[in-house]
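Q: Is it fine to ask for two folds in a single conversation?
A: Yes, each is treated on its own. Send the first.
Q: Here.
A: Result:
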Amino acid sequence: MQHNIFTSMRSLKLIDGCKGTQVYAINPTGPPPPAPGGGGGGVGDKLLHHLQDHLRVNSVRSKSNGTCQAPNGHTTVNVVTKSLLPFGLPEIDQIEPQIEPCLKFVDFVETLADLYRRIESCPQFEKSGLYIEQYAVFRGLSDPKLLRRSLRSARQHAVDVHAKVVLAAWLRFERREDELIGTSSMDCHGRNLECPKATLVSGYDPESINDPCICTRNPREDIDDDTMMEGEECSTSEEEGDMSFCIGDQEVRCVRYNIASLSRPFKAMLYGDFTESRREKINFTQNGISVEGMRAAEIFSKTKRLGSFDIRLVLELLSLANKFCCDEMKAACDAHLASLVCNMEDAMLLIEYGLEERAYLLVAACLQVFLRELPSLMHNPKVAKLFCTSEGKERLDLVGHASFLLYYFLSQIALEEELKSNTTVMLLERLLECATEAWEKQLAYHQLGIVFLERKEYKDAQNWFEAAVEVGHVYSQVGVARAKYNRGHKYTAYKLMNSLISDYTPVGWMYQERSLYCIGKERVADLNTATELDPTLSYPYKYRAVALVGENKIGAAISEINKIIGFKVSPDCLELRAWISIALEDYEGALRDVQALLTLDPNYMMFHRKMQGDHLVELLSPLIQQWSRADCWMQLYDRWSSVDDIGSLAVVHHMLTHDPGKSLLRFRQSLLLLRLNCQKAAMRSLRLARNCSTSEHERLVYEGWILYDTGHREEALAKAEESISIQRSFEAFFLKAYALADSNVGGESSTDVVQLLEEALRCPSDGLRKGQALNNLGAVYADCNKLDLATDCYMNALNIKHTRAHQGLARVYLLKNQRKAAYEEMTKLIEKAWNNASAYEKRSEYCDGDMAKSDLNRVIQLDPMRTYPYKYRAAVLMDDHKESEAIAELTRAIAFRPDFQLLHLRGAFHESMGDHVSTIRDCEAALCLEPSHADTHDTYNKVREHIEE
């Protein structure tokens, strides 16, 4: 009944009377189904009048919660609300936390310290493998920069071609360049790091990865070789030859010594005890080589070059080289064929030849093309068979291209694409077959357990998790408990988690897991303890919010879920808040959250994967005020200036529904996502911005930002300069200034950055970006102690509602010793900003004593991920000679936020207390996270020298 009424309501073109440019429009869905008993029209008419009144009255966006109030009570609203919740309210059993598909450790600091020691002390040729282990360890931190650094280091120290090929493709995949329209999988960015040609050069040369790549060099040597070969590519004359190979009824005249020099088997044949050594003519018909092929072999025996032989002849020579162990000729054929592989067609054609003839470089070149076409290529049956099956893995192994590294890369892509698929299972099985180190086996067993748990094959899942535990991965006991619980052994699962808490130093996830097997107050107590130990875990907040919904405390439920969304934005938490907002009849808030989560994950399924997110947007849209294009820009300015990043995301999503090709909006979207620390989604938005670009200079800017955000600053700078050479634009100058400021430190670079930002401000742009440029320019002036100029920049930024400029202005006032004015500026920012944890943190620096403590306590409540409050409180305790309390303060934060600065400070505290063992451990852990941190190096070296003395 309710669904039919709502369908009727949606089909009535409710906004026909509200003509004008609308961002949201309701499309008719056809004739409504007849209401049971034919009596549905009255309620539909009432709802129609209510919604029309709502649209007329609310011509300006209300600052309230956006609920629709029916003129005659709440009956109509309840009908709409229930229609929007066809699957009921959220249930606790449906929000079970996912087991993390990565290595997780009960003593993460010791793990980092041990890893750093091993990397520093291992032989150079083994470093690449250890950096891959570091990558696996860092996966649990969800920091893309750390992951990229580990992959870059692994590529830097790679020795063999296979590792270089896989790692270069992996680095490229991290940018997902497969999504960039018009790019080739074999494109590179001018450095050896990812260059497809450089990967095919064997040998250890860690200093070369940032050198200009082979693609940029003038191939003069190859041209000279070809020119020289033109005169040499003739068969041996009758006078020169002293023997012949007979193939069919034709002869190929050769020099016996030259052919014998190709290999030991040929030498034994032609100079040994075989009858062929005494014959001038040798029958070679049955050896599978043509006359042309044998002539090519004769030329190679004389010149040691392949010249311009066509591919068929080179393949014949490769086969001949294998039969007669001609190592030099095989290597030449292998390298020549590998250099010809430029695209998918070449790779698909030549991979079989390479595998059959065990041509290492040729297979590497083909693999490189395949890996650079991922993830789409995994749907190719031929490639899937090669990678996924045991037979394919054996064939790769025979030619030296089956490795844990390869299958680690492939299995991670499969886990992201489709967790429960057969392809994922097979790749993980191959991963396990390649695993030799303990951590490799832990990872493979654990991930197989996760896949089978998702497939609801609980017995197999339990076996895989138990295998992971047996080889030392304690966290996999979580999987064992889940599998046992699903097999009906609830108390056994509880005991397992209980013993984990007893045997190890408790951390938040342990209590979270045990809570799953408790009920009532015990469950609530465990989840409260989990939040106390690790406030970044989202499940406890979600559980408490859903429990409050069950008690009909909807407002309290929203407040609870707001706590986690305030510092950790994720689709599942936004979904839950939207769900609860619908129950609260806050349709505007619900729509905002659904639009924001669709920005993070465009294919998100709502209500426990039962409804497309886009469909819920369609249902919610008619229930709120409609905006024109101008309204949208005003709303975006409003939310941007109030630092309401989620609200801004929603407005941008709103605008993109009717203008999906607007690259500027995609770019704005990426900036907001970066603010929210959603880097994966931000990169996707940047790629879309680049693909939507209508001009070359604009496309170059977005490519530059993609490169900058993935650590390629010099390449980003080059893109900016190329864009400026085509057309001067705000974004090109801004990108160049940003990349230059981040690449160089010093007075000269500051002058260049100022000039670039001033050039940017002379170019057309909107207030949102102008405000950012003015803010950045003010920061540079403040760094150079040009305080009056800095003040002017910040004031101009504030005049166009760039609210964050209050923070820069406060800094200027502090530099002028106007502490009170600085405090007042930060207070203004706190009052204006929705997301104001950083404002409280900064304001604490401008006050003392209890006021500072109060602000920092507020920071921790709003964003426990910020490290400054813990460092400040620990420093205060140390000043009061409360060393143990200071250490405990840092230890509590490190348990859920292993930040290198926290580790460095705790190491320094340990040093001051004479605890050199703990100092060494903390410094090593910090250096594992940030190898270039000079202060930590100083502390570390000083303590080591003291111990040695």
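Q: Second one now.
A: Result:
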Amino acid sequence: MSAGVLLVFLFLLSGLCTRGYSRNVTSRPTVVKIGAIFTFDSTIGRVAKIAIEQAVKDVNANSSFLRGTKLLIQMQNSNCSGFVGMVQALKLMETDIVAILGPQSSVVAHMISHVANELQTPLLTFAATDPTLNSLQFPFFVRTTQSDLYQMAAISEIVDHYGWKQVITIYIDDDFGRNGVSSLNDQLAAKRCRISYKVGIPPLFEANQSSIMDVLVNVALMESRVVVLHVNADIGFKVFSVAKHIGMMGNGYVWIATDWLSSVLDSNSHLPSDTMDTMQGVITLRQHTPDSNRKKAFISKWSKLTGGSLGLNSYGLYVYDSVWLVAHAINAFFDQGGIISFSSDPKLQASQGGSLHLEAMSIFDDGPLLLKNIMQSDFVGLTGQVKFDSDRSLIRPAYDVLNVIGSGSRRVGYWSNYSGLSTVPPETLYSTPPNRSSTNRQLYSVIWPGETSSKPRGWVFPNNGKQLSIGVPIRVSFREFVSHVQETDTFNGFSIDVFTAAVNLLPYAVPYRFVPFGDGKKNPSYTELVNLVTAGVFDAAVGDIAIVTNRTKIVDFTQPYASSGLVVVASFRKLNSGAWAFLHPFSARMWIITSFSFIVVGIVVWILEHRINDEFRGPPKRQIITVLWFSLSTLFFAHKETTMSTLGRMVLIIWLFVVLIINSSYTASLTSILTVQQLSSPVKGLESLKKGDDPIGYQVGSFAEYYLSEEIGIPKSRLRSLGSPEEYARALKDGPKNGGVVAVVDERPYIELFLASQCSFRIVGQEFTKSGWGFAFPRDSPLAVDLSTAILELSENGELQRIHDKWLIGRTCSSETSEIDSNRLQLKSFWGLFLICGLVCFIALFIYFCKIFRKIYQSDDVESVHSASGSQRHGHLKRIISLMDEKKDESKSKNKKRKIESSISADD
């Protein structure tokens, strides 16, 4: 049984081995056919035809590469027509080709890709750049050039680099143009830029000078002056010619052309001067190919092939590498045992009949294997490393940024998906970590349309006569900032004068009109005004508008023209009068701790000095008086008792230092109280308002209500809206007990104006928000940037201060401070001193009692160990007290002192 199984296994194994060997040996045919579809007489087609022929010749000349197999190329002319391209693709499929090069048109590529999918034939395009062709819908579509997705990313980064926020796009209205512009819109959105206006031009057979003129006239009426031109060469030159004719190639305009222009410039080194004059200053892109010896050798060979009549553009390099890509894939295909065989398509068999000969087209059986080898290819060609990423796109996409000048173009930098804009070739940056910071992003200087090197502003006010509608709040209170002239659209005030002065500094005219906002009965909501700017009801908002977080999320503000922030204003009372003013420097807790410390230090010194110092001995009454007198007299450094022990002196030194600090602080604070008028308020700032339950006032329409309720968490039931300075004063005077408020929270400019005429109130605490006033514009508005620059200029030349003094300088309350803050000295300012003093006292007492206990245990008169424990503890306590009260014998020290004095006398 086992022998039979073994024989069967050997038979199967030998069969498999024989089959695999036969595939490897017999699968290499003499000729492999590949097709090519493109427009022969186009700029790209003329270059592609020569490049393909030369690439096939070079592949076949290398006998060791395909090992006896030759490539045979069959070319078909699509004439840039989707229908013709489809017909030519079907003709190629009748000849058993394994791959198709082309087409160059994205429109034709969309149609042929369906044929390639059905017949499983790889379609390698070297010029169709429509980003949507990379979708999963077309698995057999292989792009051997760069997608417009990256070209549009490069354009968006150029736009962002120069600070432009809006662009206009002119595109050819087909799959190529529409999908390219859609990709550009996505890339601009990532940079917070946008397409403000886009217009399509009919394909070539419908485009004429009249229709292009209509398009450009509409473009000239738009605000943006940055135009992206995404068309083909024939339409592109017509657009430039008409633009030059109507004055759209002069100062202020920016033209960015996609790589169609660089292809024409590279292929035609000597364009007519009239044609070059129409596009001076234009920026265009070219697919970047790194310099190499192979590339230089091929360019030299190209000059000999064409005799200098036709230049080599980047698409010629890509189509040359595409042929080699197919050759590498076919070689790997054969090495893996692939066989070139075809089978009938059941779908086409059902449609037989007529003269189409659909039965001649068949499915390439091993097409998926060849496609797999194409996608896994990795070699170095004329365009650099040919390798595909996970998205089936060539790795390391990069572009040259060119500036059309004179009779040609000048490279002003590079863009790569790895490092962004740079003046350094991308291949030199691949070895370093990517750095796309704004400081690293740079280009060389550009000569713009109008032969100027100054960067164009990129926008102007539209020429269609529209004025800016600027919303201005109708204020009822604090009209010094914004005041509406009744029954007119005229406004005046501090904010209006600042806006007018800033607009007058702009290098261009700004047509605008003020639109009143509010009912004139109460201050309107500024948040609602800002929301109307976002909704497009107003083109801007001007007034005393605070720049706060929730507003900056929906609009752009100019540079602040006035500082602002919320403050608390409350009533106050004077503290510099009264018979008990001398108690004000210290808080109650400070007085208690200080008094307690005097008594404790006196007791500690008495304990340390009692045994050896006669001044601390005597009857109990005398000793108590001595302790109190000694401790209190240290306050004035007038103590007569001398300390004899080392520990006592140590405690006294530290305590005298503490007394010195307390004395100095008390004297300074009392001097301030008696010489400077002090103010006191029950409200100390925002924290005390949060802890209380009293009503708080705020100005109608101010963001203070939102801040207090949403940010601070104060219940809305405690908030009271006040409409004027008079209501502020009345509510503060009444107080919370009489229906008023305990404090008013408002922005500092309003409060300063209020306090200029109300001397009974003061700002308490610190300003608890930092913001400013600015003018609101829609997001990414270029006018906001220019006005910010004008406001800075007003600040630098002093005009802003003069406007401020004109409207806001008036009578002020002199001789009183503007902010209330209690000057009482708190315990927290001195707790470190008290802690040090307490530690010194504790250490001194610890050392002292250690000596006492040591003396007890070393005494010869020790009680019997057999005595009761209670009586023993009683005896120890009596012994401790006795030793503490015992007079230390100092006879020896006195005798020694006498001997020293006698010796000194004898010497004298």
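Q: Anything structural to flag on that second result?
A: Two points. The two ends are 138 Å apart (CA to CA). The CA atoms of residues 168 and 227 lie 5 Å apart.
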